[in-house]
UniProtKB/TrEMBL annotation:
Belongs to the small GTPase superfamily. Ras family. The keyword Nucleotide-binding applies. The lineage of its organism: Eukaryota, Metazoa, Chordata, Craniata, Vertebrata. Pfam families: Ras (PF00071). It is an enzyme of class 3 (hydrolase). It comes from the Eukaryota. One of its GO terms (molecular function) is G protein activity. It catalyses: GTP + H2O = GDP + phosphate + H(+). This is small monomeric GTPase.
Length: 137
């Protein structure tokens, strides 16, 4: 939902468990940039072996890991995923891999189980960026 919202400015609430690769042109600081976004639902990722995940990590230049502020389990798996990404990407070079943690569903604050502070602290401890957003809003 967050990827579609970013690309189209529309919110669609329900998705299946399919992965998609989106391409999108974006102008940043007067330069045209072509983004390729490989959007993978967490449920599919968990069902696959490590070699599929490794292939995606090698393909990507940066990572946005999204969790639901209403789902503790989606937050709790982030440290392991980030360690896996860093081991795979930073092990090859000395460059820091850009990773951003995004807490989604900020509009559902009445169902919140993960605080903003927890998200910020996790990102800080893992040297990642952090945002909290609402794909719906």
């Amino acid at each position: 939902a967050l990827t579609v919202r970013f690309l189209t400015r529309r919110f669609i609430g329900e998705y299946g468990d399919m992965e998609f690769i989106y391409s999108h042109n974006l102008t940043v600081d007067g330069r045209e940039i072509l983004l390729h976004i490989w959007d993978i639902p967490s449920s599919q990722e968990q069902a696959e072996d490590g070699s599929s995940e490794e292939k995606r990590i090698q393909w990507a230049d940066s990572f946005v890991l999204v969790y639901s502020i209403c789902d503790r389990a989606s937050f709790n798996i982030l440290p392991l995923k980030i360690q896996f990404i860093k081991a795979a990407k930073e092990g090859q070079s000395q460059e820091k891999v850009p990773i951003v943690i995004v807490g989604n569903k900020r509009d559902l604050h009445h169902q919140r189980v993960v605080s903003s502070e927890e998200g910020r602290l996790l990102a800080l401890s893992l040297d990642c960026g952090f945002y909290e957003v609402s794909a719906a809003e």
